[in-house]
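Sample 1 of the test manifest.
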Amino acid sequence: MKNYIFLLALGLGFVACRKEESNKFDGPSLTDLNGAFVIINGLQASQDSVDFAAGESVYFTADLSKTSAWKITITGQTSGAVKEMTGLSSSIELSQSVWTGNTTNLPIFKAEMCKVDLTFTNEPDTLTVYVKVLAPKINTGFLISDFESGFNGGWTSFVQAGANMDFQIKSDVSAPEGNSYYNMAGTVDWDWLIGLVNFNASAYGASTFPLSSNPNNVYFNVMMYGEPGLTNSLVLFQFEEDENGDGAFTSASEDMYSLQVTVDWVGWKMVSIKYSDIPCLVNGSPAAPNGEGTHQSNKVRAINMLHLANPNSGFAKAKLDYMIFTENAPLNP
Amino acid sequence: MKYILTFFLTIFAFSFFSQEDKKVQFVGGARSIISNADFSSDQEDTVTSRKNSGGYALIDLGFKINPNASTEILGMVRIKNAFGGFWGSGVTFDVRQLYVKGVVKNALRYQIGNIDYKLTPYTFYNHNADLLVQSSSVLKIKEEVLNYESFYKNNTWRQQGAAIDFALQFPKVVDEIKVNSFITRLNPSNLGNILERLYGGGNVIFTQSKYLTLGFNHVSIFDLKNTALNENAYRNNVSSVSYKATLDLKKHIFGISGESGISSSALSLDTTGGLNDYFINVQANYQHKKSGLKAHVGYMDNGADFRSFGAQSKRVDFNQLNNFYERYTNDQIVRPLSNYDLYNDPTLYSNSITTGIMAYNPAVNNALPYGIATFNRRGLFAGLKYATKKESIKFESNYYRLGEVRGQGTTNLRNFNSVNANLEFNFSKMFNWKKEQKLTAGYAFQDTKRTSDLSYEQISLKSTTLNLGLEMELVDDLYLLANSYYFKSKGNESMPVRNAEGEIINYTAMNISGEELCLAGGLKYNFTPSIYLAAIYESNANSFSSVSSYRYNQFYIYYIMKF
């Protein structure tokens, strides 16, 4: 009988020991998810003006009565640039809402007044504050061109004698960065090539572009514009490597990697690619490179940008802006 | 073809060997099923095939080899042929079982290869949590097929590994000490991010006398470090004490039994310490010797963070899709798993231990979806069991009055009432008839409630299952079978949505309302007790889908043989 009493006591002892759990629950609060939506603390910016060029940032805060799907939309009042941030929470904090001056949709923000809207997926409320950008962020990397300083004398170009040819730097408010971009347009009905520009490293006072030797750390970035109603533009970037260091590119014995972009979208778009991911192409098809066969980003001596289109496709048009090499990550404009 | 020829030549050679010294025996079974279904739904459906017929024949052929008196080797192969695919596609050839077992020095038993193993209900146990009423008549045939396919025998899990058992007997103080241990492999490494995962453990059971037994049990699921690039190794440990004590009086037997223990589960890089909790299950037992009436009443407290995946793995993963009429209506909506599918489709069942919280259907079993080892349950339970001496009447019933230990999304707790009862009348034993006549009835009811002033916290869900089965022997060995299975559920639930680590991240509101009725009848002829042929017709109607009710009629022919 002693055994029974012992075991019973053991069991009851366990029961008595259970820690109190009546004030705890697992998972997110149902009240947070289903209760009435009330804005407890409205949208606030950590500062009303920000100098991104000086490394400053701004963040936004708000407190809600329940967990809600929210979206912060920052719109440049001059540039039209848009930065979006989303989340699912009952409070918006620094970790979820910090803005370092980058953009979600091109163009890039300028020094301008920005409107900041906080909206909610299932609620009609919109909260608004304004933040003034004193200076836009500065992107680190090797800038090939933003076309703000005109056509570099070290570049070379060729434009076919076709119809409605318009290869030139233009300046207007549609530029995704600054005020200028490179326009490429025309009709060439006898050849795929419409025009080209050779961005030679020598234009920057060096035999090769000053890039890291690790091709996995080097990213090529360019902003490209697709014209409404036209999808026939092909933009081919050829990266010539001077593998033997003789100051020239020998196509028969040195590597050339090519990035071919079909511009089949409308508006400005950021294109980024890791240098080691750029293939070798012959007539648009992957092929073995003619040289050492390894990507050597520190030996790129020229970037040839060719605007191509099927000669039977008629008028082709595309625009370029802000060509830049970045390290470690694609450009976050 | 070459392999098939070699296979049959091997059988032929072994059969001679077998006849000479009985060192080789053939064991196994054969089964053939032919079915024809006629499906229809309330909504216009010009996409889903209205008729569906199919079937297969299979043979499981095992060689049980005894090279000596203390060793047994079993290898079993399965040849399966889907009808319409003879001598080509549709024929599969698999290894179904493979093990070596034996006894060392008449003391230590071992088994390597496939092992069917269990320890205790909280450590390593295959709970049957989704078929709440006893199967009879037509459903019994189906459940036997399910159990055979997945090796479900006495709540064991079929695993691959090794087991060693031995016992020591003593003249004084303790009658016997029994030691059981096992190690199995749950998953292999992929040499990338998945580590080699093993499951091992055992118990030591002290039998002091026939009146007192005490067991110490431990199981552990663990990843082997350095078997992949992943540094984050998982571990789930469960340790328990189980006990059973009886007091045998002249007219009555009283007893107390139960199991209590602790669990911990964590990833090695988890700095929070993972989940740790404990469980208690203690019950008082009573038996009236003369009448055979047995009763028990008990208390259980399974912590909200109690994890024991060897006992909490479900046979059916309710996240999977049906294999039979997976979609229907012109919109091809998914047809969710029904009770009919649970009885009809052996491929829905698994025999693997899942290291994670498996999905369940709250309409089927919301009170104890993972059996008695379900975490986050606390409350009382009671049971009755009665059988007449001739077993002409058998009755068994269990009742659970449980509640959550910790709320989900709220401090308000769910409460559960669950009762099930099975009654069997064996008229042939009752009236000494030569021919078997048996009527069985099964009933299960569950009620879930969470009360709150806030409407979005309120939960009310009721489910009822009723099963009636009849087996009548018309002439010698020819039986009439009839079955009526009814399931109804109505109410709402808020099902937790969990991430890969098992944490609740959201809830899915479920509104459940529907009925399922399956009427079945047929004939069964027993060639021998282990060989029979059955022809069954059944009609199933299901109204659980909010989009479209459906029904189908199905005709089956079963041929089942065991040898």
